Every structure is written in structure tokens, then in C-alpha cells.
Amino acid sequence: MTFAEEKPIYLQIEEKIEDAILAGAFSEESQIPSTTEFSVNYKINPATALKGISLLVDSGIVYKKRGLGMFVCPGAKGIILSKRKKDFFDSYVSTLLSEAKKLNLSRDDIFKMIERGYDNEQN
Amino acid sequence: MSKIEIKNITKTFNDVTALKNVNVNFEENHIYGLLGRNGAGKTTLLNLITGKMFPTSGEILVDGERAIENDRALSKIYCMTELNLYPEKMRVKEAFHWSAGFYPQFDMEYANTLCSQFELKTNQKIKNLSTGYTSIFKIIIALSCGSEIVIFDEPVLGLDANHREMFYKELIQNYSNHPRTFILSTHLIEEVATIIDRVIIIKNGEVIMDDEVQNVLNLGCTVSGPAGAVDQYIAGKKVLGVSTLGGLKSAYLLGQIHDIPNNLEMGKLDLQKLFIQLTNS
Q1: CA distances, A55 to each of A4, A14, A49, B21, B115 (Å)
Q2: Which chain B residues are within 8 Å of A46, Cβ to Cβ?
Q3: Per the structure, how many domains does chain B have?
Q4: Which residue of A has its CA nearest to B267?
Q5: Among A22, A111, B228, B238, who pairs with B254 as Cys (CB 3.0-4.6 Å)?
């Protein structure tokens, strides 16, 4: 994995783990890799990995079992989904619109493209 | 757990001032990046820390004790240097044996495990090792020595991409198992940018940066777009440097910016770009 420059790495670690939970790679009530495993695997400072995981603890996505490690909370998927939906406008819609403005695409053009996207999906 | 305090160190060689009033602390539980261009004074600083030379003025304390000619203080530090100071005929395993004599915490089993991992044969003579394997040999001693402060001076010299990857991963694993103070002095900034958590930049013998990597990354940004628009936007701002490509211009700015015009794009400055801008000229 390489890291995008735009975002602090601990936020990217948070996102990676959330993605893995959404994809079902880490299922609810299962153990996730340790801070050390994440930091060795991604070649990042252990403090950075810990910071990313702490964010997940704070938002109720993973929890610590003493002496055992970190586990995915029941209901974690739902929490991530509602968080991501909230972020969807900022991360995708507003960047879409600013790029569209650069290219002189009209509102109608964009609607058509979105419909084309849905059509492609169905085929 | 050990810490190094460098207080007001100046080092001159005849009429050349290699270090000027350097004040830096190396605290426990951090991986430091010691960065600087060739001749900036990195190795001089490391030589002073490890007692290989004496400062012209100022002092160095290890856990509060003066480090000069102090075995107890110096034995807490292991420094992997660029130089090869091993006797002509010495073999790898003999060097391990001697290292264990000087560093009681030396972990022979771990050293041998690393040798098989890196495929270094321990009955080879050190002087017959290639550049890459000489680095690997020194890396293995540094990782195995068990000292509270371990300094890696250009650790990946001559290492291929696979071995560099193995080294960085082993370094993090080792640090996780036994947190202490690691200092990485290297020119390969991109490779260590995510591993170090504090960065010290030396320029012309002076420390120009000593901070957490995350803070340093927030210091600067780039703005690029049509040259005219960039010039207009950066007027009156702190500009580290600019580069142009035809009618396109990028400026490296200190400080975070907001309210950026539509025709300009803003980007982050990574550690290496920032380093280049700060140490140019």
C-alpha cells in the first residue's frame, strides 16, 4: 500500500480498517491485527498505527479485550455506513461539481452521466 | 530507557565550523530521522554523541551524565557507522562474538535468525562482503545489540529494494518488541518518512528543524496553476521556492492556506519536498 499525501497516515489507517470491515474481511466480533502487525506491514511508526486504531475505538467500531487484542464491535458496519454516508457529499459530490465546473459541464450533462453510470452497472 | 541531551554544542575543525550551537534532545520511545545534505554535520554530531570526537564547546548528557569518556553513558548507545572498522581477517560470527562481549544485552539467537533471513553466511570474512552485505551485517549487529539508544548512519547503503523492505519491517518489529530510541540518519527521506515520528534537519551545521513529523507536514503546501495567477496569489506570502513548466507554475509555501482561487490547485508538501526546499542554497 502507498499513502496519499493529502491525508495524515493515521486517518488512512482508520479508513483501511473500516474498508476491511465493510468488505467483510474483518467480521463483527472477530479480532483485527495488532498495532505492531499494522505498523510492520505498512511500514509506519507504531504510534501512527495506534492513533488510527484509537479513532476506531472512540467511534465504537473496535474495542479492546484486555490481554487479547482488538475486536470488531457488533454493529460496527452500521456505524461506518452512516459515517461514510455523511462524508459522501463532501468527499465525492463537491469534488465532482468543482471538476465539472472546470470542464464546463452543465447540470444536465452530469445527470446524464450519472444515469449512464447506473445503466452500465446493470449490464 | 535512555535520553540524550545535546547542549550548546559547537565543533570546529581548524577554521571550519562543522556544528554551531546545536541544542537537541533525543527522547526515549521515538524513532528519529536525522536529515541533512552532504556535509551538513550529521556524522559530526553522531561522532560527538558516541564519543569518537570531542566538542569544541558545549556538552552532551546521557541520562543526565556527561558522556565524554564515560563508559556507563556510552555503553547505552550503539552506533552503526558508514565506516568499516573491523579487523581484516575477522569473520561475521567472530564479530558477533566480540559485539556480545561489549554489549551484554546482545541477542545472539536473534542475530543468527536475522542472518538466515537476510541469507548472510556467518563464516564469511567481513572484508569479503559486498557493499550491500556489509550494510546487512552492520544492521544485524545494530538490531541485536539491545542498547537503549541505537543509531543507524546510512543503514541501507547498497541494499536492494527487497532487503531495504525487510530492514524497515524488521526495524519496526524490533522497536515494537523493545521500544527505545532509534536514530536514522539517511538521505532516503521518502523511505523513512512514515517510519520516523520526529525529524531533525541540520543545515550548514545548525539545526533548522526539530519537531514531530506530523507538525512538519502541516507547515507547508504547494500551489500550482497558470503562472500569472500563482504569482498574484503568492504575493506577500512566505515562499520557499518555485518551479515552472512552460506557462505552469508551482510555488512552495510555508503556512496553511485557505480561500484558494478556482483556477489554482493546492497540494500538500511531503517531507522530502519540504526538506529540499528548506535546504536548497
Answers
A1: 19, 7, 10, 40, 38
A2: 172, 175-176, 179
A3: 2
A4: A6
A5: B238
